[in-house]
Design brief:
Elements lengths: L3 E6 L5 H9 L4 E5 L3 H7 L9 H7 L4 H10 L6 E7 L15 E6 L2 H8 L8 H4 L1 H13 L3 E6 H6 L1 H12 L22 H4 L1 H4 L16 H18 L6
Helix pairs in contact: 5-12, 7-12
Length: 241
């Protein structure tokens, strides 16, 4: 049976590396942020997203049409994984979620914000999607449609162990090819890759976790504090290294 899998991530997570890992599987097609244009057309964010016009010009803007394609397009592989940003899930009927497997990819809010602010100024709660991840988890959990919660730190601490457990939860066999990929851009990259993917394009595998002291100030510190309880709630469900 074909699996259609959503990975609901926060921004500045390891979602692109996660997508690259699944792209190594012969049985898997991966799709990069199919709802990005829909989000840009419908969001009320004050944050500026680099490459906005190119995204709108080159992607399907109608979220309902994107959802229909995700559900019904005939892919050439047995399974397909959609890398999604949780904050893109706006102004849409959400019934499609219950027809797919759903993974939540979470990360410590302080790490998200310290990275995100380097590219997007003045992020707000709705830009980073962490409360939306919490709300989405509760909704999916009630329907029995949470396949797994994956935490970025735990994945980096032991990629093989975490991915093996994740594959088991998805009903897939683990494939060691998921642990390595070729350096550089990939054909499935979105057109925004030139703004966001520089680091992952230099990689060939999940980079070892490095503990860093992060200091945030002012509005960023306040936002991180607001996000922290949602992250901690989700973390208790995450696959552990």
């Amino acid at each position: 049976m074909q699996k259609r899998i959503n990975v609901w991530s926060s921004p500045r997570n390891i979602s692109t590396a996660f997508m690259y890992a699944f792209a190594q599987r012969a049985d898997m097609t991966v799709v990069d942020e199919p709802l990005y244009a829909h989000y840009l057309l419908n969001t009320h964010t004050q944050a500026t997203h680099p490459g906005t016009q190119e995204i709108l010009d080159t992607m399907e803007n109608d979220g309902a049409k994107v959802v229909d394609q995700m559900l019904h397009h005939t892919y050439t592989t047995p399974h397909v994984l959609f890398k999604q940003m949780t904050h893109h899930l706006i102004e849409l009927e959400e019934d499609f979620l219950f027809e797919m497997d759903n993974i939540l990819l979470i990360r410590d809010p302080k790490r998200i914000l310290s990275s995100y602010v380097k590219i997007v100024d003045n992020p707000a709660m709705h830009d980073v999607g962490i409360k939306m991840q919490f709300d989405l988890f509760k909704k999916l959990e009630a329907a029995g449609k949470v396949a797994a919660v994956v935490d970025a730190k735990q994945l980096l601490l032991n990629p093989q162990k975490v991915l093996t457990q994740l594959c088991q939860k998805l009903g897939l066999a683990f494939d060691k090819k998921m642990l390595h990929w070729k350096q550089g851009p990939r054909p499935e990259d979105g057109c925004w890759a030139k703004y966001w993917y520089a680091n992952v394009h230099q990689s060939t595998h999940f980079q070892p976790y490095v503990e860093k002291k992060i200091q945030l100030f002012g509005n960023l510190a306040a936002l991180a504090s607001k996000c922290q309880p949602y992250y901690e709630y989700l973390f208790q469900y995450a696959i552990k290294a």
